[in-house]
Amino acid sequence: MSSEPGPGLPFLPGYAFRDPMKTSFHRSQTLGYRNGFAFSRLPTVGAGGERLHVNQLSQAELDDLSNARPVLTYGPAKPAPPSGFVPAHVAFDKKILKFDAYFQEDVPLSQQEHYRIRQVGIYYYLEDDSMTVIEPFVDNAGFRQGTLLRRHRVPKNDQGEHYHWKDLNRGMNITMYGRTYRIVDCDRFTQVFLESQGIELNPPEEMVFDPYIEMRRTPMRKYITPSDFDQFKQFLTYDKQVLRFYAIWDDTNNMFGEKRSCIIHYYLADDTVEVREVYKQNDGKDRFPVLIRRQRLPKTLVEKTKNFPSCVMEISDHEVLEWYTAKDFAVGKSTTLLGRTFFIYDCDEFTRNFYRDKFGITDFQPVEMEKKPPEEVPQVIPPYNGFGMLEDSLQNCFSLIPKPPRKDIAKMLENDKKVLRYQVALESPNPEDRKRRFILSYFLSDNMISIYEPPVRNSGIIGGKYLRKTRVAKPGSTTENATYYEPSDLIIGSTIEVFGHRFVITDADEYVLNYMESNAERFPAATLQSLRDHIRPQQVGKEAANSDIPALGTSRQELDDLIVQVREELKLHKHLNIDNVRKELLQCDQDGSGIVDKGTFLAALESTCVPTNALLVNKLIDLCSCGEDKINYRDFLRALPS
């Protein structure tokens, strides 16, 4: 029975028939949640659970709504985000197709192989469609291996196409840059990938191997005759056990031969022998590690019936009848090893115990080897050749790189710039040489002598340095007992010989007399007295001449000659400043008369380092004197070198 009224009856009270089966009269829910978001919807069921047809859309309305785009209040709706896109370099990163292949290579210049099979791996990179060919390394292959084709896109033909993974399959040939590769198989990942893309793979093939490599890997058959002797047992028993013998190798019969001390090592583990030479400090020999390397030494060889040259130096086993063993070595006996005879004179304690236990030998009395001391070769010093100083030449006999002789530093510091000057004349049969006068300077710091000849105008002799600074030996002096001239040998009137030339001492400076008088204990009385007898009268005569005879009376020619000599003498003093001397003397002459006091004059010369104790300078000062304690310094200034 329906609860709805008939179509012709009004919906009025009394005209409605209530369905007693309806028990629920609440409104249906219009709010809901989907994917966590709240949304509203129109009710589809009315009160009592009746289905409402007013809120249902027709098919035409649904089609219109599906094609229509809603317009928001503030403009059109934002476009929907695109579907997920993954680039190829991300999707195929580290995804590589690997194919096993090989190629055949001709070998024209070989008698053992005519061709070569080289196995390679072809790698295809899906991220950028590049390929590479890599050959695995084979030991002792003899040719270059590794990367045969670098990674890049490999051209397929002349039309600009490149190889793609769709072009690769098992059981096919692929040609890249003129070389044909045969693909025989691929790995599991490659197989799954290609099958997923709808490519039907060919069945795999067997890999072809290089016949020459396989021949080398095949072990050669060795025919070994079984032996009763167990070498491995000998090695385990006597490992690190070595017999040591002390021997002498007498090689004096050969040219430049000698007796050499050696040590013979016998290794019990494999019956090998080693000989080492014993070196001493500063023996002049090269330190070779071993004299005879460790090896088995033959004792008796097979007699060869044919004279045919051998192409190898090694001795094979079938050429030896007997090898050296431990019983062939004994103290006090000689043994010949590879043509060298060694005399064994002693052994160590381990060797004695081994022979005592193994062979029952108890006589190990060492042999005393008399070592003759080397003959001392006397050092013969060759005669002096006259070049250079004797001490310098003698150093060449003591060292390959000569060292300068030691100098007396204390004496050099004490007598620095102390020079004794003498006037000497040349003793010669020529009349021209008898008039020549020289200045001999004796340097107290190093006992050296120099000779200078002042130039004389219109004499025909240049003059200048006659002998450089050197030590002069006395006549009769030898290289074993060399004696040199000393200040005590320089006496007025004595003759000295300088390298074959004889000089007579005629005069000396007053400084020489003053120095010897202040150090009278060092010089003989005869030398000191000769200087006093020669210089004292001159000093008295000068004083008398200064008081009685003025300098104006002196011969002008004599003064000019002396000025020339003093000028050459002062040129030798490199440290002398001429401008300072002139300036100092001009300051002393305040009135400009050209005459100053002698004390002031000498003080000015000493302050400017003018050698007033020199013989010629002192003589010029005497000639420039005018009156008592007065000096005409203008004549002295003429003697200063420009």
General description of the model:
This protein is an alpha+beta fold and 642 residues long. The chain folds into 5 domains: 38 residues, no CATH class; 124 residues, PH-domain like (Roll), CATH 2.30.29.170; 119 residues, PH-domain like; 116 residues, PH-domain like, CATH 2.30.29; 89 residues, no CATH class. The protein is 23% helix and 24% strand.
Radius of gyration: 63 Å
Instruction: Indicate the mean pLDDT.
Output: 82
User: Approximately how much beta-strand content do the residues carry?
Assistant: 15-25%
Main sheet summary: 6 strands, antiparallel
Helical fraction = 10-25%
What is the terminal separation in angstroms? 164 Å
**Poorly predicted ranges:** 544-554
How many DSSP E strands?
Answer: 26
Name of the CATH class of the largest domain = Mainly Beta
- Identify the quaternary structure here: single chain
Keywords: Cell projection, Cilium, Cytoplasm, Cytoskeleton, Flagellum, Repeat
Subcellular location: Cytoplasm, Cytoskeleton, Flagellum axoneme
GO molecular function: alpha-tubulin binding; calcium ion binding
Protein name: EF-hand domain (C-terminal) containing 1
Brief account:
The protein is an alpha+beta fold. The chain has 16 helices and 26 strands. Strands 8-7-6-5-10-9 form a six-stranded antiparallel sheet, covered by helices on one side. Strands 14-13-12-11-18-17 form a six-stranded antiparallel sheet. Strands 22-21-20-19-24-23 form a six-stranded antiparallel sheet.
Topology:
Elements: E1 31-34, E2 37-40, H1 59-67, E3 71-72, E4 75-76, H2 88-91, E5 96-106, E6 115-125, E7 130-135, E8 146-152, E9 172-176, E10 179-186, H3 188-196, H4 211-217, H5 231-238, E11 242-250, E12 259-267, E13 272-277, E14 292-295, E15 298-301, E16 320-323, E17 334-337, E18 340-347, H6 349-358, H7 390-395, H8 409-414, E19 419-427, H9 431-434, E20 437-443, E21 448-453, E22 464-470, E23 495-498, E24 501-508, H10 510-518, H11 525-548, H12 556-570, H13 578-588, E25 595-597, H14 598-607, H15 615-623, E26 630-632, H16 633-637
